[in-house]
Amino acid sequence: MASVLRETSGAATTRRLNPLNVRMESGRGISISERGKSWTICLHAFADMSHVPPAVFVYLLKECYLSGTRTATQKFKVLQQHVFQALHNAPQPGPATFIVQCLYVVPLLGLPYGEGFSHLLTSSMRRLISRAPESGRNDFPGAKRLATHLFLDILAGAVVHAERILIKILENFEIELKDVGEAICGVDLRTDVLDIAKARIEHYILAFMESESYVTAVTLSEHFSICPSGDFFLLKMMENNQFKPAEKWATLMGKPMVCLVIQKYLDMKMLKSAYEMIKTNNLKQEFPDVHHLYKESLLKKLAEKGCWDIAELRAQKDRQLLKYLVYLALEAGYTEKVKEICDRYTLEGFDEISVSDESSRTSQFLDLSSLILDDIIWVDDINGLLAATNYIEGCKVIGLDCEWKPNIEKGCQPNKVSIMQVASENRAFIFDLIKLYQDEPKALNNCFSRILCSPNILKLGYNLQCDLHQLSHSYGELECFRYYEMLLDIQKLFNERSGGLSGLAQKILGAGLNKTRRNSNWEQRPLSQNQMEYAALDAAVLVHIFRHVRSPPNSPARVEQSKGEWKSHITKEVSLRILERMITIPNNLFRLMFICTFYC
After folding, report:
1. Labelling 141: which of 203, 232, 357, 569 has CA 20 to 30 A away?
2. pTM for the structure as a whole
3. Record: fold of 375-599
């Protein structure tokens, strides 16, 4: 453990070298040279532990840590490896007992080191037992008795350790109630040993509860199967938002307390927690309505996110849930979804929607006729791709947007971009990227490079960096999604922080966009007519907003001011590396100021 650097030529001097900055090989010396002199590192402490007392070992641990120059985490990893090796080198009277003796000494190091070194020792012991069970358990019975005394000394405050170390000692040395009884009364001296041990542990459990150390109290209760009667502490845990310990405590206390926790969850509108406890404890008969309430809350959250197709799948053809989903669609004004679900599952009683109600909702949103959009063209083959590219190259301004299938599972990677919409003032193209990439990757790359890298086409988007970042991750092999020219992000131009594109359209054009289809299944083929219209409008509206800004009504002064504003936000060139930076840099810091003389 302690390494000594001895000079083998020159003056007979001795100097200690930092063991965390050199390669250490247990059991033999390492020769190195420094400025022409020869040195030897002698690993005398780790190589033979038979005569190293616990106090000296702990002291050397601290000295090694203090003299190390790496980060704290790195130093602990190195030390953990060497402690693990040391436990194989005959510590007396055995490795497990030696660790317990060290744990008695460690608190003397003080607060900055005590808990960290205790974790280091207990983890090394656990690792030894798991990798070398025979050598690790040679002295385990004696170590367990000593660890039980240490456990009681910590509870009594005679030895100061963190509660987490207390639990580690309890678990690593497998301390049971009879071990506690024997430590208190001695072996076979009394017949009521277990009762005495139980009373002692229950006393400490209550003390932890009163000090609001709920996790420790519940862990002790679970480990020893001891749970004080009454619901006072259970309610206190719930009031302090200690829900997981409360659930474990209630499980120990039995069904009435479990039902009490479930009812508290329901009162607090925590349907998911209530549902999971009911499912785990098989209490569906006691709470028959919670299942549907929870499922309805899930459908509502999905509907609020616009994930109507996923919500329909989650309903699992349950007619009660499907009817609830229809009511949600009615509230959102999503009449086509209402009809779709009713037709698919033959749901009746929803025909009362009047034509006037439907038309009044529709009039709140932009549609194809209001934007004078002549045609929507679906592109999924080489001929359509080439024709669309030729048309787009003749445009000066286009709107860009992308759609992909939503993924609401936490931690999952987003799905690939499914379609890309490119719109001029009166025509919209919807490219099936999934099929084109699969069938014609080279042609797709060539055509989109001609569009996206053209300095003669101004490309508009809303929150552009998100779409471009997603494109690069979906189709990273294609060069066309790695470099762009002439981009203008409408969101940055107006500095919109809320309301999205629909809110901006409402402000500029007098009507918003119906976003109910935003999170539909964009990988289904063919897309529905409603999906096609939604996708086309999202790209076309950008061009119309831009036209309004570029040629606004009223005074000439306003025209000049508007021109200066939008021109200053054009990004002339951007690469994939810059796009990745755009994702992380806050909007108010990202301002690339380029002037495009082409549009003067």
Report:
1. 203
2. 0.58
3. Nucleotidyltransferase; domain 5 (3.30.420)
